[in-house]
Structures are given as C-alpha cells and as structure tokens.
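Cross-check.
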Amino acid sequence: MDDIKEQETEENNNEVATTLIKKTETHDNSHADKTKYGIVEASIQEENEDATNCNCGIVPEKNMIEITPANENVLEETGSVGKYVFAAGKLTPEFPSENIKREFNRVIGLPQNTQPSDAQFYDALKDNKNFYLTKSLCWIFEIGGIESYVVVPKNSGQLTTFINILNKQVGTEITTSNSNDDSGSMYFDTIVGKLGPMAPPEMCNGRTLPLLKAYRLENETVTDFVSFMNAETKLDTALLTNLFLNLITLIDNDGSSDEHRAVNSLVFNSVDLYRLLGDTLPNSSSNTQIFPFKGVTAKSVDGSDGRKKVEVVFQYENPVTSAQEYLNGQVDVTDMFPFVSGSIATGKP
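Predicted model, tokenized:
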C-alpha cells in the first residue's frame, strides 16, 4: 500500500461539534495507535491531460489506490472549500448529459437507452482510444446507496485510478443494512478528501451535490480487510469478520463532520481497536455470534496542544459475560488524515 503526501492544514478551528451516530456516552485517552496506513503525507503531481499517458489498463499494486489532487480552480471558486471528508461507500461513473451517454453506448454497441454496468464502463474506458469519453464522465460517490459527492478528477493519473476501481468492484457493496449478509464477496470504497462548493447543474446531468477533491481512494473486499487485521492482531478471521461487520452498522454517515471522520478512521484504520475488542472474546473459529454493539458516541474536545480532537466511545455487550463494556480513544482530526492521539483503552474515559 502506497503512502501519499499531503501538506495542508485546516484554517477553521472554531467549528461547533456535532455529536452524532447512535447511543452511548463520551470518553478520553493516550498513546499512539498502529493504523492500517501508517502516516500519510501529501504529494502533488503535475496535471497531464494527454491520453497517451493514461495507462488506463494498469492496476496499481494491491488495493491501495493513489490519488493526486484535483484541479484547484473548480474547488477554490467559493469560500465553502476547506472541510475534510473520510467516508465509505461506492464510486460510480455517470454521464453528464444525454449526448455523452449516446456516444458512449454507440462506441461500445449498447442500445441507446441502456445504462452500462461497471464492467462495461471498465472495458470501454481502459482502452486509450476512448480517453475522450473518460474525460467527459462525472464521478459520484454513493454512501448507503445515496448520491453524496461529485468527485472531481482533473488529470489522467486520477482518471486511471477511478477506472481501475471499477475493475475491483466485484460482488456486493457493503452497507449498514446488509452487513450481516454473506460477506465473502462484499467490498467497500473509502475516500479521504477536501470538500468544495456545490457542483454546477451542468457538470453532472443536473446533480447539485458537493464537490469532493480526492486525496486517497481505496477499494477493498471484506476478506482482504480481515486478512490484513488477522496478520496484525493474530485474531481468528471469523472473530474479526464478526467485529468488522457489526462495527459497520455504526457508521451510517457522510464522513463530513469531525466526529464522523474520527469514528470512520477508527473502524477502517485502527488495528488496536480490533485487537482490544478481540481480547474480550474467545479467540475461536466457532465464535460467529453477533457482536452486540449498543452504539458509539463522538464528541469534540479541546486539545491542550491547540489541535482539534474528538473523543470516541464504543459501547457493547460482552457476548460471553453479558456485561456492558466500553472502549474509548481520542482522534486528532486537525488535518486531512485523522490519527489516534494517545491510545485506545478499555472502559469509560
């Protein structure tokens, strides 16, 4: 998994906290957590619109998808730029107009009123001769089946990334409502980026969604995620799958508030969260019972070092003892990539 470099800080430190996400209370703690991605920094590549440099058929190593910053001009037009996003969902290509849809379907031989599948999009767009179509599409990030953001790729490197993600979206997208289904073929996309103004209606066939400049985009299956956590924690894969699928039910959000970013980063990045939860249960392949989470609460707190932090508390019922238990941790959300400030610990803060 490649590291990406970022050197931006958020100016507005006075944003009022919104505690959102389900039932429970609040918390606190200290010591560095090992995350899935380690430290992520920023790097900017030169924009290159030349179709010959698309390399659309090349899939980046493993599941890590590297994204370069989108063209600043679109995102810097209004004062609404600045909030960061960490969200989970699905990246989907869309036609900005009927004209582009008809041309696309003509090229790949589909009836004019047919919506191409992800596989058909990928097969067509990976061919450099169709790069003019690639540049004409708009890209939507859906969360729980709801269109939430217009993601703005403005150079060929980013477009290659988006195309390759279509090739990885095999199986069923995992959502908060289907997380207890058969998880073997389930996948999810996660995106970290910077929020921009609303997209103009002509940009994406009348949609007026917030623009999102993507800095990191990743596609992963539940199996891949569990395999990674198994290697790091040595916990049984059945137990880890159980934990992950039940944690997913707690993150029905768009990832745009500091509180949501903190919770989402723990669920998708934090090795220590899974290790500590696993330590409370029998490490047995027969342990496939539902892990009964009662909720999660996130609350902005004042950091003594002047940085923005969020306290997160997970409440759950121990399926072995039936006791009400808690895990708590503090997440630094000052900059684009949240990280655990201190450590995750058992109990209330």
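Residues 201 and 207 are 5 Å apart (CA to CA). The mean pLDDT is 75. Passed to J.P. for a second look.
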